[in-house]
Request: fold
Amino acid sequence: MKKHTLELLFQIIGIGSASGLFYKDNTLLLIGDNSGFLYEYHMDFSDLKQYPLIKNPAANIPKSEKPDFESIAHFQDTLYIFGSGSTTKRNAMIEFDLRQKIKIATNDLSDLYAVMQSFGNIKPEDFNLEGAVYDGQNWYLFNRGNGISNKNMLFTLHAKKLNEGFSLLSNDYKLPKIKGIRSSFTDAVLVNDKLYFLATAEDTQSPYDDGEVLGSFIGRIDVQTMKIDYTKKISSTHKFEGITIFSNSNDKIEFLLCEDKDTDELKTEIYKLILEKNLKN
Reply:
């Protein structure tokens, strides 16, 4: 088998600017960064449902007003949906019950985000969380370093609840470049003791404004050492912003990826990425 293969799997009509996804039992749960809904797509029936996450939700919210939901973390029967924190209107974290299919809490993370910015020496205008992972004890939150300071930072919070006491660690990373532009974190997922992350190179110095897409990488961080032990360019044209586990066997991992095309078109393409487990740079 090749070290990796990437293929377009299917399209979903009704979702735009997909920024995060979670797969379970042949069903995809997705968010879009300009939407106020969580979407549920049944792959067997091509059936799409939507669940409101905010008051007066819409599928295309103006950029200045959107909650900018960029990442999904999952643990047991709960999804945790994070706003990016890139403006004061983007500091919410939604808890969604997968059994009841309802929102059960809205958390204001303004204070937590301020602590993270101070701890990581990140200016508010360069703060932009785009990946979140929760294992029941630790939260792994990825700051996308597409601001001027280029702070690609992984925050590790040891806590069961983000509104309770926690310990905080941070690790700063220099990610690969494309055409002289450094890539930046866009999402991550935990597989055993490895964090597999996506990173995209985009020709912009703003965490708010979009730029020309130059390509995307897959990478891997060992949670014991917190060091990157693998990176590989997987596309020269796509801006992949969401990753979830599709299947996990002894020799390979299959991921599903979603792409943010930064348009108002309500169409999302889902890709399958297959990686060998015995990967080396």
User: Anything to note?
Assistant: The helical segments are 110-120. The chain has a mean pLDDT of 92. The CA atoms of residues 146 and 207 lie 6 Å apart. The chain is about 5% helix and 55% strand.
